[in-house]
Amino acid sequence: MSGDGAGIAGIRAALPAYAKDIKLNLGAVLDATTLTPTQAWGSALACAVAARNAALLRAVAETAAAHVPPPVLTAAKAAAAVMAMNNIYYRATHLVGDAAYQAIPARLRMQAIATAPREAGVDKADFELWCLAVSAVTGCGTCVESHERTVRGAGMSREQVHEALRIAAVVHAAAVVLDAEAALA
């Protein structure tokens, strides 16, 4: 069940029969999407990082490398990294239920949101889309709302947002199933 060396096809083959929907969706959300390859594979890789399953991450990275150049992969990982911090902070300040916390400056370095897209030569809106997808995986409503407004303001359609959210959902589900099977083995 490692998925090593076989990319997404190996992960799909490793998913058990009870996860047939996930297996089918894993192919469908990445093959039949209205997103550009950069948008789709950046979303998939960022979400695989956030989902924390090593086999899935290796498989997505391997397959993504066949579709997008290395700087896109680096930027997608940067999106996952900065959102790992931001999603915890902004979700927590929201969940506390005291608006005063939301008024206090975060004072957390978040330069990757500005620099990673430029350094990788990717559209800032694509990077923001990856941040949105990661935020869906980690469950930060504040960040989902913020990044959705940003990408829509940059001209992305609701369909593009929807596609990134579908990718996030399926990548996360695949990680959950792989983790469950590993724990039960």
From TrEMBL:
<dbReference type="GO" id="GO:0051920">
    <property type="term" value="F:peroxiredoxin activity"/>
</dbReference>
<comment type="function">
    <text>Antioxidant protein with alkyl hydroperoxidase activity. Required for the reduction of the AhpC active site cysteine residues and for the regeneration of the AhpC enzyme activity.</text>
</comment>
<feature type="active site" description="Cysteine sulfenic acid (-SOH) intermediate">
    <location>
        <position position="143"/>
    </location>
</feature>
<keyword id="KW-0560">Oxidoreductase</keyword>
<comment type="subunit">
    <text>Homotrimer.</text>
</comment>
<dbReference type="InterPro" id="IPR003779">
    <property type="entry name" value="CMD-like"/>
</dbReference>
<protein>
    <recommendedName>
        <fullName>Alkyl hydroperoxide reductase AhpD</fullName>
        <ecNumber>1.11.1.28</ecNumber>
    </recommendedName>
</protein>
<dbReference type="InterPro" id="IPR004674">
    <property type="entry name" value="AhpD"/>
</dbReference>
<keyword id="KW-0676">Redox-active center</keyword>
<dbReference type="InterPro" id="IPR029032">
    <property type="entry name" value="AhpD-like"/>
</dbReference>
<keyword id="KW-0575">Peroxidase</keyword>
<keyword id="KW-1015">Disulfide bond</keyword>
<dbReference type="GO" id="GO:0045454">
    <property type="term" value="P:cell redox homeostasis"/>
</dbReference>
<dbReference type="InterPro" id="IPR004675">
    <property type="entry name" value="AhpD_core"/>
</dbReference>
<dbReference type="GO" id="GO:0015036">
    <property type="term" value="F:disulfide oxidoreductase activity"/>
</dbReference>
<dbReference type="Pfam" id="PF02627">
    <property type="entry name" value="CMD"/>
</dbReference>
<feature type="domain" description="Carboxymuconolactone decarboxylase-like">
    <location>
        <begin position="101"/>
        <end position="184"/>
    </location>
</feature>
<feature type="disulfide bond">
    <location>
        <begin position="140"/>
        <end position="143"/>
    </location>
</feature>
<dbReference type="GO" id="GO:0032843">
    <property type="term" value="F:hydroperoxide reductase activity"/>
</dbReference>
<feature type="active site" description="Proton donor">
    <location>
        <position position="140"/>
    </location>
</feature>
<dbReference type="GO" id="GO:0006979">
    <property type="term" value="P:response to oxidative stress"/>
</dbReference>
<comment type="similarity">
    <text>Belongs to the AhpD family.</text>
</comment>
<keyword id="KW-0049">Antioxidant</keyword>
